[in-house]
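Dear support,

I submitted the protein below through the web form. The confirmation email said the job was done, but the results page showed an empty box. After a refresh the structure appeared. I'm attaching both so you can tell me whether what I see now is the final result or a partial one.
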Amino acid sequence: MSEVTSQLKRCCLCGQRQPRACFTRDKSRLDGLDNRCRRCRHAMRENNLTATRLLELLTYDSSSGRFHDRTTGEPVPVTLHKSGYVQLTIDGCTHFAHRVAWLAVTGEWPPHQIDHRDLDRSNNRWTNLRSATPSQNVANRRAMANNKLGIKGVIEMPSGKFRAQCNAPLSNKPRILGTFATVEEAAAAYSKAAVERWGEYAPRRCGCAVSASGIVKLKAEEKQS
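What the results page shows now:
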């Protein structure tokens, strides 16, 4: 057995061979991992909660994004996941509040992921939530922590110039957009490419604000406003 194959594990539910990191720990098993991948475990929890059962227990305030006990009217206790998402417990199972909000309004679990338009993962107002594919959800994120400029898609080169790059369609590899003399020009190039690549999911608060015409507001300008 090759080293690569030995690092994979087959999920007992979906049957797919996946990296060991996709499985939660289970000390009771010989290999120390659950036989179900994280995605299947999550799907099982959601399948056990229907919209009918949810609305029997809770109410969802779409204007505030909060849940209340239907009987007492009291706010439902929540916790904050290390990722920044709000969690709540229903019938003994923990769920992400933004996904439960989608279930409460539409009557169905979201088909994909849920994107927070304003990048605030704790803001679960209905107007701030929208269905998104994994690629679209990743697109609407802030610049990485190691980005010294704090402007997504722009890197300062040793020469003092600025390189703009954007992930190519159907690929995670960056597509170089060009090297520019100023950070404003590089940010504008990324802004335009991001709108073409992701449309309405193009980042709007990642160091630069993007519009359909490719207009950019730099981070410094946002601080002054």
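Response: this is the final, complete result; the empty box was a page-load delay. DSSP finds seven helices and 16 strands in the chain.
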